[in-house]
């Protein structure tokens, strides 16, 4: 492959050594994302607090010190003590809390949309068996996750992490799920990056959510309940992925939920449980969730693309179930959470007759999400004492909630995490960030600040342009990379000692057996009838042929809709998405 020996030069910092080996995986520094050590600063604009009263201040200043919000007040008021000499940065826009995404398989977000989804599926166990799935999704990611350079080290993982995290930032996301790695030593860890990871915060104020459970617990409802009772935070687990027709209440998708019933009056549910998707649940099932204080995470576009239907969120709302939001992944979902908010709004308008107010939909990606995570004391709204996770969009006129739904990615003026400006328009970033990388979004200049004290050292040396170049070339040469990976290789002596030199690979969900599950696989009608989808077996993979014989060059998914000339037309060509949703999306961009 031609790029293996290319020399890379990041936009900031020292030159990177030659070759993909230069960005091999290594342990990260401990500590919360962006330690609370930042200077005093002030941001001026319209503030949409997303607090309990849905407070909106038309002309306000948000005062920040050491990553926390000190005060939110009318501009006309005197500055709080200690801020008398701090000049406010004029954002020229509307400030929202940073978007919190509770469901995203970030590892896959360099892949393009599955266009078109070839048929309407009924449950999660079906579409991974389709002939296109290995060619377009699992196969390419297997190569990316396991491809190694001549020294035996992973070669593409840091570029992938940098890319998908920047994709989050460009959609206003400050918190998401993480990218997990597994080693030959049986150790698992998450990459540390810029975007806050709900599963590894290293922060006492932000209890870490669990997105995976041990296989043993995943196959026994009582053991699973015991695990739930031990958690201090939240368990984000896939549930009932598929659809259930009213006349078929015993659907396979719904069985995933019914198998959580341990005894007639006992369920493997509590206030720590959040069911991702929950699309196969009947209205009475949401009453069960509500009775146990459980929540759900809605991913409407992915559900519509694959199944032609989505969760009965009207029933969830009626039952009082807290609802979060997630874009799932790029092969069958939105590019970012801002896009998923648009889909949720369209579905609400055309199918639910406007049941949810627009502000309630935005709450799913802000304060609701923080409450589901048990983070409500620290995140999810713009209030004194909370973390300065802030999204600023252009303009201060009109209804602020509608403005966010209709905002384009090019309308994002600033994204801040823990008081550190990470992405935005040049004027704001020049005032707030010491060193930046310049990128183009929708033909317009934007700045990124990617330096970080606690960053994973392998990601730290990779600029976004480098990541784009590496991944674009890898996807173009995916067949050759697969062929190289299939060749017998000499095993280096150091690589045999997993204790001193662990070799890392992507922990790809249900492709690589890492000893944990994303969804419970509980017995239904017998010990061999498990409710969750099977992992792809090694035997089945071999029978399906070598990846080098199957894979073809693929396109790196553009970072934004603004830079993807095909995305909206691809959505409009999807057979399973309701016409009002797919036709209305273009109007929101």
Short description:
The protein is α/β, with parallel strands linked by helices and 589 residues long.
Give the arrangement of secondary structure elements.
Layout: E1 41-48, E2 56-65, E3 68-74, E4 89-97, E5 99-100, H1 131-146, H2 157-169, E6 173-176, E7 180-183, E8 188-190, E9 196-197, E10 213-214, H3 215-218, H4 221-230, E11 235-239, H5 252-258, E12 261-263, E13 266-267, E14 273-277, H6 283-291, E15 295-298, H7 300-307, H8 313-319, E16 322-325, H9 337-350, H10 358-364, H11 367-372, E17 390-394, H12 400-406, E18 412-417, E19 420-424, H13 426-432, E20 437-441, E21 444-448, H14 457-460, H15 464-476, H16 478-486, H17 493-496, E22 504-506, E23 516-517, H18 538-543, H19 547-550, H20 567-572, H21 579-584
Parallel strand pairs: 1-4, 5-6, 6-9, 11-14, 14-15, 15-16
Antiparallel strand pairs: 1-2, 2-3, 4-17, 7-8, 7-22, 10-23, 12-13, 17-18, 18-19, 19-21, 20-21
Helix pairs in contact: 1-16, 2-15
Beta-strand content bin: 15-25%
Strand order of the largest sheet: 3-2-1-4-17-18-19-21-20
In angstroms, what separates the terminal alpha carbons?
A: 38 Å
Structural class: alpha/beta
Number of strands: 23
Q: Main β-sheet, in a few words?
A: 9 strands, mixed
CA-based gyration radius:
23 Å
So what's the oligomer here? Answer: single chain
Which word captures the global form? Answer: globular
Helix content: 25-40%
Q: Return the average pLDDT rounded to an integer.
A: 89
Number of contiguous helices: 21
> Which runs of at least 5 residues are low in confidence (pLDDT < 50)?
1-28
């Amino acid at each position: 492959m031609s790029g293996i020996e290319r020399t890379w030069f990041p936009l900031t910092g020292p030159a990177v050594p030659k070759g993909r080996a230069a960005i091999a995986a290594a342990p990260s520094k401990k500590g919360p994302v962006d330690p609370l050590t930042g200077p005093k600063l002030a941001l001026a604009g319209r503030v949409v607090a997303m607090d309990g009263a849905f407070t909106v201040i038309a002309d306000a200043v948000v005062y920040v010190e050491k990553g926390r919000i000190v005060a939110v007040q009318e501009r006309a008021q005197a500055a709080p003590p200690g801020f008398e000499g701090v000049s406010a940065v004029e954002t020229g826009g509307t400030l929202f809390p940073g978007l919190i995404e509770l469901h995203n398989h970030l590892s896959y977000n360099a892949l393009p949309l599955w266009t078109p989804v070839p048929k309407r599926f009924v449950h999660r166990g079906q579409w991974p068996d389709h002939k296109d799935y290995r060619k377009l999704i699992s196969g390419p990611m297997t190569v990316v996750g396991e491809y190694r350079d001549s020294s035996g080290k992973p070669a593409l993982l840091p570029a992938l992490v940098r890319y998908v995290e920047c994709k989050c930032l460009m959609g206003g996301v400050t918190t998401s799920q993480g990218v997990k790695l597994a080693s030959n030593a049986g150790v698992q860890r998450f990459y540390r990056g810029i975007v806050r990871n709900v599963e590894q915060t290293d922060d006492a104020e932000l209890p870490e959510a669990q997105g995976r459970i041990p296989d043993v617990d995943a196959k026994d409802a009582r053991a699973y309940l015991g695990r739930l009772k031990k958690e201090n935070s939240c368990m984000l687990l896939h549930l009932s992925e598929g659809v259930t027709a009213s006349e078929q209440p015993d659907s396979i998708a719904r069985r995933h939920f019914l198998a959580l019933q341990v005894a007639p009056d006992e369920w493997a549910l509590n206030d720590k449980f959040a069911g991702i998707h929950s699309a196969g649940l009947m209205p009475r099932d949401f009453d069960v969730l509500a009775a146990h204080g459980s929540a759900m995470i809605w991913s409407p576009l992915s559900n519509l693309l694959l199944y032609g239907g989505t969760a009965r969120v009207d029933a969830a709302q009626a039952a009082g179930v807290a609802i979060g939001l997630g874009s799932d992944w790029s092969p069958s979902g939105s590019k970012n959470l801002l896009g998923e908010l648009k889909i949720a709004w369209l579905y609400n308008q055309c199918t639910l007759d406007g049941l949810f107010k627009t502000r309630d939909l935005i709450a799913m990606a802000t304060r609701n999400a923080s409450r589901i995570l048990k983070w409500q004391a620290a995140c999810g709204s713009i209030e004194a004492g909370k973390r300065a996770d802030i999204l600023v969009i252009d303009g201060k006129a009109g209804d602020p909630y509608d403005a966010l739904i209709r905002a384009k990615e090019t309308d994002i003026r600033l994204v801040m995490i823990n008081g550190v400006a990470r992405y935005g328009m040049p004027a704001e970033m020049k005032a707030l960030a010491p060193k930046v990388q310049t990128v183009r979004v929708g033909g317009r200049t934007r700045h990124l600040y990617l330096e970080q004290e606690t960053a994973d050292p392998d990601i730290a040396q990779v600029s976004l342009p480098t990541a784009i170049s590496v991944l674009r070339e890898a996807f173009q040469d995916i067949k050759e990379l697969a062929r190289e990976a299939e060749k017998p290789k000499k095993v280096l002596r150091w690589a045999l000692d997993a204790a001193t030199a662990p070799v890392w690979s992507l922990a790809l969900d249900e492709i690589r057996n890492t000893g944990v599950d994303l969804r419970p696989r509980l017995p239904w009608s017998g010990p061999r009838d498990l409710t969750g989808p099977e992992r792809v077996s090694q035997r089945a993979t071999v029978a399906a042929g070598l990846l080098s014989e199957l894979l073809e060059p693929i396109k790196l998914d553009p970072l934004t809709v603004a830079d993807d000339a095909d995305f909206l037309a691809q959505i409009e060509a999807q057979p399973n998405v309701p016409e009002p949703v797919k036709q209305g999306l273009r109007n929101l961009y």
